[in-house]
From TrEMBL:
CC per GO annotation: cytosol
Family from the record: Belongs to the dienelactone hydrolase family.
Domain Dienelactone hydrolase per the UniProt entry, residue ranges: 30-245
Full protein name: Carboxymethylenebutenolidase homolog
UniProt entry tagged with the keyword Iron-sulfur: no
Amino acid sequence: MANESRPCPCDIGDRFDYGSRGHEVQVEHIKAYICKPPAGTDKAVIVIHDIFGWQLPNTRYMADMLAANGYIAICPDFFVGQEAWKLSNDWASFDDWLKTRNAGKIDKEVDVILKYLSGQCGAKKTGVIGFCWGGAAVQHLMLKNPHLKTGVSLYGVIRFFEERSSLLHPTFFIFAEKDDHIPLEQVTQLKQKLEQNCKVDYEVKIYPGQTHGFVHRKREDINPQDKPYIEEGRKDMINWLNKYL
């Protein structure tokens, strides 16, 4: 396990102001942000947020990017009304906060969103991406949910592969070389388990010099040398979805 007592720095210093192109909807008991492409499509992607919640501009930017690439993108509130983590919170309370927000217990909400996407949006093929907390949720879904077609887990804490590592769907794992929260030895162990047990396509990729949260942060203006890796990560994510959706 990674050190979960140290909260992820997904938006520390790099959160950016973004107006977003989509709109908010109510889907049964879940609020969600949705963005649709200019042309009609039957392909959708569920975007699972990090600990900073479904309203983080960074995450909505990624949803809009997916829509610009031809996907219906929806980012539900998987905390279901519970408060997202705030940088002003007491870090000592993080473990207790996390206990009521289990990335492995989102199945009910995913089923509701899948029903909405197929019934209200015409989606026939749906994939999922997730960042940090959401990346762990993607791992859970790729091991258990039969209705999704593919997934991309971005720097998700590796926690659901102890008992099973046979993925149901093609899955792309994005990790950062200098991630303080996911040691590279854990990534190596994950690779070994997948090599032994996985029967579907997968890829595990480590991006040199990058830190936790690099793909969904607008770091171009802050750290220019990271720009190529941010762009590469985003392109790899889109290419994976294009291949399997």
